[in-house]
Amino acid sequence: MRASLLQIAVDEGESIDSRREHVASLVREQAGADLVVLPELWTTGAFAFESFGAEAEPLEGPTFEVMAKAASDAGVWLHAGSIPERDPEGPLYNTSLVFSPAGELAVAYRKIHRFGFDKGEAVLMGAGAELVTVRLPETVVGLATCYDLRFPELFRGLVDAGAETLVIPAGWPERRRAHWTLLARARAVENQAFVLACGTAGTHAGVPQAGHSIVVDPWGEVLAEAGSGEGVLSVEFDPAKVGTTRGQFPVLRDRVLGVERPHG
């Protein structure tokens, strides 16, 4: 299976319409890949909090339309990163979109863990409430977004739902890049799954981005890692390695659940 992670630079001087067309052209260039992944909030910038309300769009808005066509043109499964979604009956959400090679929406995932510690995304956006997986021909993909990476129980829930490959778009800051790579490898090892983590480049509202998109196998080995600038990280991997790893080292069957807390 071939995956291409598109590490997009968010240029604050570029219009969102221009960026959409640029990203769509990059997606089309990945024809022949099985899966293409974009970063979190690449239309606005993950730290451009003041833009979320003004730039929020319906689920089936401009980004949906452009990305659906790009997926269809390239004939790829496309995880189109995330957008600030405006729900007409509720708050804003940080919502990921996954399209089939026919350009049809396969699933949408609203980010569960919002970053900001009582400011920024944490107060401007609502929290998702559902774990989401999608079955590709080669593997079952579990969806998470950026700050979700710090919460292992979410990923264990995805594995319980059948996930074998964990896809994580992000707008992760450079100052915590060491955590990005450490946590990506940890999530792969503890869940015996592939991790495809796609970050952004450039600067979001004055916050330098980490870049360093990364692909990790079920043993925690890094198969590929990008640098800090915009670029495409392509990698071949064998989804069957998940089953092999879980069979050779069956740690997941030894989980102990429901342990009571001590009293007193």
Automatic annotation (TrEMBL):
Keywords: Hydrolase. GO terms for molecular function: hydrolase activity. Residues 1-239 form the CN hydrolase domain. Pfam families: CN_hydrolase (PF00795). This is Carbon-nitrogen family hydrolase. It comes from Streptomyces liliifuscus. Belongs to the carbon-nitrogen hydrolase superfamily. NIT1/NIT2 family. Coiled coil: none annotated. InterPro entries: C-N_Hydrolase (IPR003010), C-N_Hydrolase_sf (IPR036526), UPF0012_CS (IPR001110).
